[in-house]
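Exercise 7 asks you to align residues with tokens for two separate proteins.
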Amino acid sequence: MKASSPIQKVQRSRPAQAQFSILIPSWNNLPYLQLCIDSIRKNSVYEHQIIVHVNEGIDGTLDWVKDHPELDYSYCAENLGICYALNIARGLAQTEYILYLNDDMYVCPGWDQELLQAVRKIGHPFFFLSATAIEPVDSGNRCVIIRDWGQNLHSFQEKDLLEGFAQLSAADWQGATWPPNLVHRDLWDLCGGYSTEFSPGMYSDPDFSMKLWRLGVRHFQGLGASRVYHFGSKSTARISGNPGYFRFISKWGMAPSLLAQKFLRSGQPFDGPLAEQELTAAERWKSRFKRLQAAWRNPR
């Protein structure tokens, strides 16, 4: 694009051997972004294309990314949120598989090898995979491992993490939804990427899973052996809530929790592709009531 365009996309890498195109949206979060990319370089088994979308970048992020020619990047002077950021960055992806990674995540050794082995074992592109996050604070998410190796960069215990992460117990789980997540580029394009009506991003993750479900995807696998350390919402915590919950209900006719619990069986042990589901009479009535709530809220 021309320099005068509100959105810039810059392709510089030549990822001939790259396995994944890693999309990293970043909003004035340079120290975490630097650690994230450093962990990819140090702890990956394979080569990957790294694409950073810079929202604003007034903290030096844009200059730093420009100074690293091995990084591809897109840029907007305004904060467009995660959904637009991911869709813009996807336009630079050169590999068969697209991986969405938060900038406040640190990938652990072998994280990518486990994902690629799972892809090869599945043998078809109709899947959605997630790595397992290790988080310092228990948020009630059954799909993460709770272990405190630092809640910010100042308290981060990288050496202890590297020595101890593999000793933590975690089996594969159902309900892949959250980043880091991996999808074939054809599925990404077929479902239209991340839905911008959820900008700046709240509830866009279950929406993406629901779109894949409607396309017929039933393999939603979280990999216990593919791990990242997640400091936790270092960007989204700066955003006041948007009406994503009711947008989801208006769009899909059910609450995100029903998708997670009944359809995706999120956090349950992985036992293969998910089964078809029918709502019970009680679930249908409850969903109708929630749709009325959503219509009354009338999110725009």
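Second protein for Exercise 7:
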Amino acid sequence: MSLLARSDQGLVSQWWWTVDRWLLICFVMLLGLGMVMTIAASPAVAQKLGLSLYFFVKKQFVFLILAFFAVIAVSNLSPTNIRRLAVLTLMTSVLGVILTIMVGQEIKGATRWLYVLGVSLQPSEFVKPSFIVVCAWLFARQNTRFESLGALYTFGMLVTICGLFMLQPDIGQMTLLAIVWACVFFLAGASLRLLAMLMTIGVVAALYVYSAYPHVASRIDRFVDPSSGDTFQVEHAMEAIASGGVFGVGPGNGRVKSILPDAHTDYVFAVAIEEGGVFLAFLILAAFAAIIGRSLWHVRKESQHWVQLAVAGLVCLFGLQVCINLAVNLNLMPSKGMTLPFISYGGSSLLASALTIGMIIGLTRRRGTIGRDERKRPSSVRIVSVREVVS
């Protein structure tokens, strides 16, 4: 009997016949494209830093393997165990952010990385998907009313985490997390009045950030008025995109990767268009669009409210990060150090994106039977504890 026969009750076979294989294919496709772009963009950066030619390639390959197995492992979990994993990951990563602020090494004016066994990790990357899953469960559990403790818990966690992000500082991640939280709250049934109040608070917070953080003000000012400061990276990224044409200048023939210091991270999409043209850009965008579309297609068929909210929130997180990176490359918004999932170089970003996709695949798997704890839908608001979240 074949290992992957439908009648086989083995773990691998049951996983294979219950997951969305199109999501898996798109994920593997992005991993492959990301490795190709790391090989294309990072050697020039490594040379400028005095490192071995394939220093970044070797590191990214190790994280790529870890990301692949992370998606397989997480997607094998039941919704209950994914929720438990999210709680554990959230607590661990928040602790990591606190340690980063206390003992992390400052790089480019920010302390966002911890060194563990010689490897740099960015704990804030892992806060995002785990926070969204926990919030989705609490919103669904507490019947979505903002005055309920479940919703207040999520708002308190959001304020705390955003405060930690501001201390690093990491304004981009803070903004992204707040927007995704608001989207999940809206999907959970928040009133327009509450959303208007939250939007007002957001505007006030944005004005404060603009006045209190000079580097944020500088980026916004340069975006509004390019003559007000240095726009070196944006200008060369736009030139690379314009020179790409339909099929690009060919692998290895691009110039922008030898010029931009962030060619392998923030501006990897510009490198992709210059060397692969619109054709390669279309492949990347098609893979992202397929993941987002397939995930949302599963949401409409899901019977568990918290799973619906969790998948929608994770898709929103994933999609917004893609849109922000592309918008920066296309000079449609101020520059922000936010990677393109699976395509940009970065171990923490790669593993966090793998955690996000693994959760989406696991939560959208076809489930024949659902335990009582998964079927229950609360009819009234009641107090919940952290112990109950992980039970």
